[in-house]
Q: What sequence folds into this?
């Protein structure tokens, strides 16, 4: 039935009418009917204000309208009056929430109003105000009216207002909270006594985090959650490991004594960076908990956790996102200050990276190292960056355990209901300095005087409970005594011997690198079948004419057995892995098409734009699964995500592709702290592949060098594989080898740009066929008869080959190093020893002398240093010149020095 007049207005959200009215007052252009409505309303309002005599009905109507606005305003801004800071007096008023701002006064407190905008519906003004203040202005401040979906807002209102945003706790639940608080507080105090001065980055002042996480885990089975992956920085990690994950006290004590065995062959890491996993039985349901290892780069673990969760969700299939939940614990300064936080938030609803919503817990210490909030952010709240997602944000008093537990339960329910992120901020403090050897009173004297006067949260909560039930004092004392006994008993016990091996999907995977030279080629008939699958289109699907020609050339080259280009070889590798039951996941900026227009893994109908992915169509017949995504404009976040994904998927070829190789600079923390060192620090292997376009073609500094030297500097003890293949067949075998090897190591591949369509950079079908494999070294010419040997890697080989041919220098041999690390030095030396004793030996590279592989190579070739000379650009502070003309001049000089 249609609505008319007042019925229509009553059905509209008051927020919408108020917003339109404010826009009309600001002279914004509105539809004509709304302009007439507000003009009439204003005339009436002005008349009411000017007339000394108005009817009682008109006065009541205005006050009723004021009540509607008051309800909306409390929902929107009530958090400004919430008492959430244990170090500051509670606010008692705010001008935007004064009754006078709504045409109301204390004289109206006993007036009864009727409204459908509040669950009370019929009540006095006093009752409405008390309900709103109790819901929004106590020790939970909620920001949620920025959420654009009215259904989500109403869902929250329905769960907050009738209960005044609090839960009723049983005696058992209260004692559980007391117990977790005793554990958290007494553990830190014990460590302080037994290991004075040692860094532990204590949780003191924020111990509320322990019962909050415990409540989340206990609530998980009620929502179908069976798997929680958590990331956090170092503050409070030891406490969480002990009291949430169940890491034994004696093992932690052994780490403080520096007596603990890491349990695997590697360097290990400091105790407050380590990860852990455990299965906990909750209400008869097993919940698997994982704490991801994290270096000191605070938020760097965030995308890694998201990637791990996505991989587990994909493994579970439909409904996996409801079973696996990411939980990220942040510091206030890092959440506001680290750009990676915004990158991860931006991922939350993207097809390739969404994980069904993340529960963010911000442990607000009200200081970052020694930096005060006013110097650390430009916003009121540390959590304001999360508003980009239009998700709810709960600000909770750091000494109100029951409020915090209530809020985390509501946050979990919201996440499960809507599949979106949610933020819980625990506003507390840091009892000590940045670490236990720091003196925070040097820079924050007044703040730390206030902190020194605060009792610990376990005592505050116990006092509150005892006021209600005096018998709880003895129960609290008993629980505290039990914790102390457990700490004392564990202190002198040696830790159990540990052996941390590869488990679950990693079981049976080798740890050590061993050169793999088994054939990775395939029967020619199978390759032709894959080529046909790659170009097959659904009936009625029309591609761009240029793409149609490319697809035909792609199939024709395989059928003819010659001229197979880079893009075709790469897609053949993916198709072959899918046919073997392996998964393939590729993401990066423009990766569906390829930055340089070579891949076209996804095709788009030229008429209506709908997409078709031949490799995903192959999924239906093959055992593997193919994923390809154009990523958000992020390197740090996306690389971290794909690294996390690779940690969970040893049988999936997980690939991150940089748009240009230099862009990987934006992800250097992930390379340094995770990719290159994660296995030796934390025993976490990864087979992640990183495609970094590299090649000097006169495109300037940022579009030339992928900084080969940086990755070679990270190489040691077989931690990485670094390759620069120069033929399509080599790329094919390299990708297939990555999953055929009995171990997993991250693979850095310097991929070409101009070679993607170079007429000579093609391969015959025979190079892909059975019996072939990736060759770590390639030789052109006769080394044993050559008077000069030019060693090189990558694109430059084709320029050297061309110049050698122009000069008809058959006495020059070219030695290409296709795998830079681990370098097969024995084979290299054997080849060089077979050369003439008077041979001229050069290392030739495009990169400046202080960059590229030169310093790495000359270190490797110590026996030949007296003969080895460098040919390349002079050392520079910039990877490449910005002038194409100057680039060509440099290249010409370089080739002359090498070949003449």
A:
């Amino acid at each position: 039935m249609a609505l008319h007049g007042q019925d229509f207005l009553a059905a509209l959200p008051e927020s919408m009418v108020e917003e339109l009215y404010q826009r009309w007052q600001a002279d914004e252009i509105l539809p004509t009917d709304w302009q007439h409505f507000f003009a009439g309303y204003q005339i009436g309002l002005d008349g009411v204000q000017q007339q000394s005599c108005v009817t009682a009905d008109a006065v009541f109507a205005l006050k009723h309208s004021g009540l509607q606005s008051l309800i909306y305003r409390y929902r929107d801004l009530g958090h400004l009056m919430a008492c959430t800071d244990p170090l500051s007096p509670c606010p008692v008023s705010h001008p935007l929430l004064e009754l006078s701002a709504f045409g109301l006064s204390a004289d109206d407190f006993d007036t009864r109003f009727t409204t459908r905008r509040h669950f009370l519906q019929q009540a006095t003004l006093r009752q409405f105000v008390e309900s709103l203040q109790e819901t929004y202005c106590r020790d939970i401040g909620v920001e949620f009216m920025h959420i654009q979906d009215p259904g989500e807002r109403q869902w929250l209102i329905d769960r907050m207002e009738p209960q005044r945003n609090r839960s009723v706790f049983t005696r058992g639940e209260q004692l559980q909270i007391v117990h977790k608080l005793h554990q958290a507080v007494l553990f830190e105090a014990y460590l302080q006594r037994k290991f004075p001065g040692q860094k532990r980055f204590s949780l003191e002042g924020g111990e509320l985090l322990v019962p909050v996480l415990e409540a989340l885990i206990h609530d998980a089975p009620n929502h179908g959650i069976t798997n929680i992956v958590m990331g956090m920085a170092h503050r409070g990690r030891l406490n969480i490991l002990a009291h949430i994950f169940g890491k034994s006290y004696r093992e932690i004590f052994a780490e403080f004594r520096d007596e603990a065995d890491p349990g695997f062959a590697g360097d290990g890491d400091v105790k407050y960076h380590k990860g852990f996993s455990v299965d906990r039985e909750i209400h008869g349901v097993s919940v698997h908990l994982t704490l991801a290892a994290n270096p000191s780069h605070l938020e760097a673990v965030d995308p890694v956790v998201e990637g791990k969760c996505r991989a587990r969700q994909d493994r579970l299939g439909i409904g996996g996102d409801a079973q696996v939940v990411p939980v990220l614990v942040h510091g206030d300064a890092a959440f506001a200050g680290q750009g990676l936080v915004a990158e991860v938030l931006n991922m939350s609803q993207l097809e390739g990276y969404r994980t069904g919503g993340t529960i963010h817990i911000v442990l607000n210490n009200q200081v970052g190292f020694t930096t005060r909030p006013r110097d650390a952010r430009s916003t009121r709240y540390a959590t304001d960056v999360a508003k980009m997602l239009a998700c709810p944000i709960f600000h909770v008093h750091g000494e109100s355990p029951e409020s915090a537990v209530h809020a985390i339960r509501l946050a979990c329910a919201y996440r499960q209901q809507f599949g979106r992120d949610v933020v819980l901020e625990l506003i507390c403090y840091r009892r000590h300095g940045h670490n236990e050897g720091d003196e925070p009173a040097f820079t924050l004297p007044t703040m730390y005087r206030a902190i020194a006067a605060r009792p610990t949260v376990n005592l505050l909560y116990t006092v509150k409970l005892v006021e209600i039930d005096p018998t709880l004092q003895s129960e609290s004392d008993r629980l505290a005594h039990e914790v102390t006994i457990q700490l004392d008993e564990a202190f002198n016990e040696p830790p159990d011997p540990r052996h941390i091996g590869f488990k679950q999907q990693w079981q049976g995977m080798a740890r050590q690198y061993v050169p793999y030279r088994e054939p990775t080629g395939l029967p020619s008939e199978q390759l032709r079948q894959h080529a046909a699958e790659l170009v097959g289109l659904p009936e009625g699907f029309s591609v761009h004419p240029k793409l149609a020609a490319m697809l035909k050339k792609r199939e024709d080259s395989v059928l003819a057995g010659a001229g197979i280009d880079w893009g075709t070889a790469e897609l053949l590798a993916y198709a072959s892995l899918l046919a073997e039951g392996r998964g393939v996941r590729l993401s990066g900026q423009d990766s569906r098409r390829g930055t340089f227009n070579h891949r076209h893994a996804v095709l788009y109908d030229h008429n209506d734009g709908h997409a078709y992915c031949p490799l995903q169509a192959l999924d239906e017949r093959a055992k593997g699964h193919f994923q390809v995504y154009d990523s958000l404009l992020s390197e740090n976040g996306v690389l971290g995500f794909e690294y996390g994904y690779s940690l969970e998927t040893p049988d999936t070829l997980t690939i991150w592709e940089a748009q240009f190789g230099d862009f990987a600079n934006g992800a250097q923390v992930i390379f340094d702290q995770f990719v290159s060192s994660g296995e030796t620090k934390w025993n976490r292997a990864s087979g992640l592949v990183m495609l970094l376009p590299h090649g000097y073609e006169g495109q300037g500094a940022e579009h030339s060098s992928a900084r080969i030297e940086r990755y070679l500097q990270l190489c040691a003890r077989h931690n990485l594989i670094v390759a620069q293949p120069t033929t399509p067949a080599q790329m094919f075998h390299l990708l297939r080898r990555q999953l055929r090897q009995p171990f997993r190591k991250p693979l850095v591949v310097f991929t070409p740009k101009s070679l993607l369509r170079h007429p000579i950079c093609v391969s015959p079908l025979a190079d892909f066929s059975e019996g072939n494999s990736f060759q770590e070294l390639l030789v052109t010419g006769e080394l044993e008869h050559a008077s000069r040997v030019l060693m090189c890697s990558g694109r430059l080989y084709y320029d050297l080959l061309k110049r050698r041919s122009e000069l008809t220098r058959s006495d020059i041999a070219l030695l290409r190093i296709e795998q830079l690390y681990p370098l097969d030095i024995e084979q290299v030396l054997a080849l060089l020893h077979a050369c003439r004793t008077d041979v001229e030996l050069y290392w030739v590279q495009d990169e400046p002398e202080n960059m590229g592989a030169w310093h790495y190579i000359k270190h490797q070739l110590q026996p030949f240093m007296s003969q080895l000379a460098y040919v390349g650009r002079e050392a520079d502070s910039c990877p490449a010149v910005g002038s194409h003309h100057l680039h060509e001049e440099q290249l010409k000089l370089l080739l002359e020095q090498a070949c003449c």
The longest helix spans residues 171-194. The chain has four domains: 13-139, 171-363+377-428+454-468, 524-768, 777-899. The longest strand covers residues 840-848. Residues 524-768 form a domain with the Rossmann fold fold (CATH 3.40.50.12470).
